[in-house]
């Protein structure tokens, strides 16, 4: 590869992002691609500490958005960009799209505002491919955990879903929708096929 490839996995809580990111990374490693697997918020020592605050402390909407951004900058500088520059395939569970959907739409801070803020401080370092695992709100409610964000009301998640739909319309070339309500292996195969097709076109 002439350069790295940056792939993100997105979706509502309970969509199986981390599991599918792991399965994709494992499959690509098996067929010989260099892969770096990571997640947000987290991925670095600083970002992991911020993650604990975000998920467990009572904070305002603006503080939450800025903490996610701070964690992302650390993650980008210490993990994503170095791996990308080494021509690796970087797979991240969540990235900027999550902030736009969850804080921009879910918390009402504005999708365009959160997008612009993140573009400014990440130097508009976007993934080339985003795989959005689509599940319904009822499925998300049944599957999601119990951290501070996951305990928010259904109305919040309705707005988050609206945010993702807005992103899908805004970035149709980058964001590919995967039906996440099928068996795990079927979801994995769909993700793998889309990712491999993109990778093969880039190398």
Automatic annotation (TrEMBL):
Return the Pfam families for the record.
Thymidylate_kin
**Known EC number:** 2.7.4.9
Q: What class of enzyme is it?
A: transferase
The residue stretches assigned to a coiled coil in this entry are none
Q: Which GO terms describe its molecular function?
A: ATP binding; dTMP kinase activity
* A GO biological process held by the record: dUDP biosynthetic process
Q: Where is the Thymidylate kinase-like domain?
A: 9-191
Q: SUPFAM superfamilies from the entry?
A: P-loop containing nucleoside triphosphate hydrolases
> Which InterPro entries is this protein grouped with?
P-loop_NTPase (IPR027417), Thymidylate_kin-like_dom (IPR039430), Thymidylate_kinase (IPR018094)
Gene Ontology CC entries for this record = cytosol
Binding, ATP:
11-18
Reactions catalysed, semicolon-separated, are: dTMP + ATP = dTDP + ADP
Q: Give the record's keywords alphabetically.
A: ATP-binding, Kinase, Nucleotide biosynthesis, Nucleotide-binding, Transferase
Q: Which NCBIfam families does the protein's record reference? A: DTMP_kinase
* Role: Phosphorylation of dTMP to form dTDP in both de novo and salvage pathways of dTTP synthesis.
Matching HAMAP family: Thymidylate_kinase
Which family is this protein grouped under?
Answer: Belongs to the thymidylate kinase family.
Name this polypeptide is given: Thymidylate kinase
Please tell me the species this chain comes from.
Answer: Psychracetigena formicireducens
């Amino acid at each position: 590869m002439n350069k790295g490839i940056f792939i993100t996995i997105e979706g509502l809580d309970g969509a199986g992002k981390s599991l599918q990111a792991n399965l994709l990374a494992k499959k690509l490693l098996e067929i010989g691609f260099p892969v770096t697997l990571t997640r947000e918020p987290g991925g670095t020592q600083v970002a992991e500490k911020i993650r604990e605050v975000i998920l467990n402390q009572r904070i305002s909407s603006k503080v939450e958005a800025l903490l996610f951004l701070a964690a992302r900058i650390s993650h980008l500088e210490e993990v994503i960009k170095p791996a990308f520059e080494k021509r690796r395939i970087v797979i991240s569970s969540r990235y900027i799209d999550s902030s736009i959907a969850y804080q921009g739409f879910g918390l009402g801070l504005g999708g365009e505002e959160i997008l612009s803020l993140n573009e400014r401080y990440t130097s508009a370092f976007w993934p080339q491919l985003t795989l959005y695992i689509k599940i319904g709100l009822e499925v998300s409610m049944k599957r999601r955990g119990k951290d501070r964000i996951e305990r928010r009301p259904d109305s919040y998640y309705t707005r988050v879903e609206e945010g993702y739909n807005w992103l899908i319309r805004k970035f149709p070339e980058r964001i590919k929708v995967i039906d996440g309500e099928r068996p795990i292996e079927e979801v994995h195969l769909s993700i793998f096929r889309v990712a491999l097709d993109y990778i093969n076109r880039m190398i």
